[in-house]
Amino acid sequence: MARKKTAKKTAKKTAKKTAKKTAKKTAKKTAKKTAGKKAAAKKPSLGRPRIAGTAELDMEFKGDFGARQIFQFLDVQTFKELEEFSPQEITDRVITPLAQAVERIRKQLAMANRHLAGDQKFAKAFQAELSKVMKR
Q1: Are 93 and 76 in contact (CB under 8 A)?
Q2: Is 57 domain-assigned?
Q3: What residue ranges in 11-134 does DSSP mark as E strands?
Q4: CA 105 to chain centre
Q5: pLDDT category, 69, cuts 50, 70, 90?
Q6: Are residues 102 and 136 in the same domain?
Q7: Residues 73, 104: one domain?
Q8: What pLDDT sits at residue 67?
Q9: Phi and psi (nearest 5°) for 35?
Q10: Beta bridge partners of 127
């Protein structure tokens, strides 16, 4: 009977050991998952900036005349100031005055019985609208 007791004791001991091992493994897995969630919650970083935020844009874009014109139009001198704008916002701010200028050109040409290439339909419609307004 002594052997049966020792076999039971060893079975209990091994069960305890395996339970401890699985508990450690699950603790490690949950720790990895929470660490992964923390890393995912952080903003993705590009790393340390290679150019200071206070650096002048003209020095970095010496040869790019178009970019320098945009900086002048936006009235920005440093990278920090430029980073406040989204790409869409820059595009909208640059394109809007151009589109308005083209509209004014189209109207002026229509008033002079002229039109841009392929823009005769607009000229006729504008002249008709203008004649309605003038009759009032």
Answers
A1: no
A2: yes
A3: none
A4: 34
A5: very high
A6: yes
A7: no
A8: 93
A9: -65, -40
A10: none
